[in-house]
Design brief:
The complex is a heterodimer of chains A (283) and B (294). With 283 residues, chain A is of the alpha/beta class. Helix content of chain A is 40%, strand content 22%. Chain A contains 8 helices and 10 strands. In chain A, helix 3 packs across helix 4 and helix 4 crosses helix 5. The chains are: A alpha/beta (283), B mainly alpha (294).
């Protein structure tokens, strides 16, 4: 036990990336994920490994079909790995649980039969983690933080898409999960709202310093949101690169460094496609 | 060539800037609805209007026909209804029917709840429900009455048995299809909260499938009524003191056709009340409030 602890602590130091001794919060270790459709057994990711550290804004980026959403479902515990292991705080993930709150892309993730406040309170109560009064108080604070205080007693069907996503984020943050899982949460929003939501998420992170694992297919969004970007190749998803993007945000979006990074990622994803097309042509 | 490409590109126009002008001359941007619009917006008013219209048509046609034995007028029926209500014990008859109905309905709903919960949580339960509904749903409840009388004797137990049969299958079928239709995102959200088993069913599946469940409850209610009245008509004496079906049967034998109409009218009135008061209120407070149904 003690030796494992030493090893884990030593790892980032040998990598030379951290001067403090930090243990990874989430370890994805050689994970192969498969799911069944009616006719096929699909391998979504193949031996993917990465580590997420506390307060990371870790982005998983890749084209459609690279298994990034499946990977997130694996971390959430909806899907057991066929190979490898997913560990949270050193313990293997066994099933879904409120220590990993998920924000989905779809707007219908809120329970339509509960008001905004009840939606935020509900997981806190069902998980038994907070008492009634405390849950109420935390819900109020979380809703205020996403600027929806005026809509606390409104039912979800009366909210716009962006507001629903903000409720989903408030609901997840109020639980104080070990890690926040976001599956393309802004993909279904219009461009203006998406930009606003990205800024809001970054401001929230500045405030709370939560850990988030964020899945997207937009290169710009990945660079703006993430401090670390995992690039996956498609069919099946394999790690292509792990890049740093902690220097970039909306303000640097028009800068040269931002453009260069975007181009690098673009080439990485695009090269894959050209190679694949060529291979198909040669067949 | 150059002409063709020139024709394809849009003309460059000067840019345009304007300040929003004064719009006060078009009057209020919001205005209250007129009294007529507000009255016609009340569903009850529109529904009552339809009922009045039907009553007027009935009165006109039966007056034209002028044959009290075949088709009594609306006025005569209303008179008979009033007499039966005041002195003929119509209320007591109706209560006898409703009491049996409620017992059968409640039992059917409870069994349907168990069966569908089993069906969503296990594959065996799912197959069981699918097979049983396929077998028994097309079977008219009234066809089971002779058997029920044989097994449970003359009395309430037989009626309740056929009522359960009438309620159980349509309700299970609707509830189950409602459960199947719950979106994957909501399911995952529920499991993400750590909900499992019964908690998952009661806190996620049932509210999410409530529109279908409510439709099932309505259909089951109508099926139960039909079955009960038919059963009382055929084997009326079996229920001891006799319900509405027996009231209709008796009066037909005495050729008191306006009383037969009054009995049928009572069935209809109870149906309207339950639909428009009970189910409507439930709808108003649940699926409509939640925006799951218009």
């Amino acid at each position: 036990m003690a030796s494992a602890e030493v090893q884990a602590r030593a790892a980032p130091q040998t990598a030379g990336s951290a001067d403090r001794a930090v243990r990874p919060l989430l370890e994805v270790d050689g994970v192969t994920l498969q799911y069944k459709t009616k006719e096929h057994l699909v391998t979504a990711t193949y031996r993917v490994s990465f580590a997420v550290f506390p307060a990371d804004r870790f982005v998983v980026l890749g084209p459609s079909g690279c298994g990034k959403s499946t990977l997130l479902k694996g971390v959430a515990g909806f899907l057991a790995p066929a190979e490898g292991e997913i560990r949270l705080n050193g313990r293997a993930v066994a099933g879904p649980g409120p220590d990993r709150m998920m924000v989905f892309q779809e707007f219908d993730q809120l329970l339509p039969w509960k008001t905004v406040k009840q939606n935020v309170t509900f997981p806190m109560r069902t998980s038994g983690r907070y008492g009634a009064a405390e849950a109420e108080e935390r819900a109020r604070a979380a809703i205020a933080k996403v600027n929806l205080a005026k809509f606390a007693d409104v039912y979800p069907h009366m909210l716009s898409g962006g507001m629903k996503q903000r409720v989903a984020i408030a609901r997840a943050l109020a639980m104080e999960p070990d890690i926040l899982l976001m599956d393309e949460p802004f993909a279904a929003l219009d461009a203006l709202t998406r930009r606003k939501m990205q800024e809001e998420l970054l401001r929230l992170w500045d405030d709370v310093r939560f850990t988030v694992l964020f899945v997207t297919h937009s290169i710009e969004e990945a660079i703006v949101i993430g401090n670390r970007i995992l690039v996956l190749s498609p069919h099946p998803g394999q790690v292509r690169a792990e890049l740093n993007a902690h220097e970039h945000d909306h303000a640097s979006q028009d800068g040269e460094a931002f453009g260069a990074l975007r181009q690098r990622i673009h080439d990485m994803l695009f090269a894959e496609r050209i190679e694949q097309e060529e291979a198909e042509r040669n067949e | 060539m150059s002409n063709a490409t020139a024709a394809k590109s849009p003309p460059v126009r000067p840019e345009l800037f304007r300040e929003p002008g004064d719009v006060s001359h078009i009057g209020a941007i919001e205005r209250p609805l007129s009294a007529w619009e507000r009255i016609t917006n009340v569903t009850a008013v529109r529904r009552v209007f339809i009922l009045v219209l039907l009553a007027v048509l009935w009165q006109l046609y039966s007056t034209y026909l002028d044959n009290a034995l075949m088709f009594p007028t609306f006025g005569a029926t209303a008179q008979a209804f009033w007499d039966a209500l005041v002195s003929g014990g119509l209320l007591r008859r109706a209560w006898v029917s409703i009491e049996v109905l409620l017992m059968g309905y409640a039992a059917g709903v409870a069994i349907a709840a168990v069966l569908t919960t089993l069906a969503v949580s296990t594959r065996f339960g799912n197959d069981l429900l699918a097979t049983l509904t396929a077998m028994f749903n097309p079977l008219p409840a009234i066809a089971l009455l002779p058997l029920a009388l044989l097994w449970f004797g003359l009395g309430r137990a037989s009626l309740i048995f056929v009522l359960i049969h009438a309620v159980l299958w349509p309700l299970s079928l609707n509830t189950h299809s409602g459960f199947m239709g719950v979106s994957e995102t909501l399911r995952m959200a529920g499991r993400n909260y750590g909900l499992k088993g019964l908690g998952y069913v009661t806190q996620i599946l049932i509210p999410a499938a409530f529109p279908s469940i409510l439709a099932g409850l309505k259909i089951a209610w109508a099926f139960a009524w039909r079955t009960l009245i038919a059963a009382e008509l055929v084997f009326g004496v079996s229920s001891g003191s006799g319900g509405l079906g027996w009231f209709i049967f008796e009066n037909k034998n005495e050729l008191l056709i306006d009383y037969v109409f009054a009995g049928l009218g009572t069935v209809i009135i109870i149906g309207l009340l339950v639909e428009n008061v009970v189910f409507r209120t439930i709808e108003e407070r649940t699926v409509r409030k939640w925006g799951m149904q218009r």
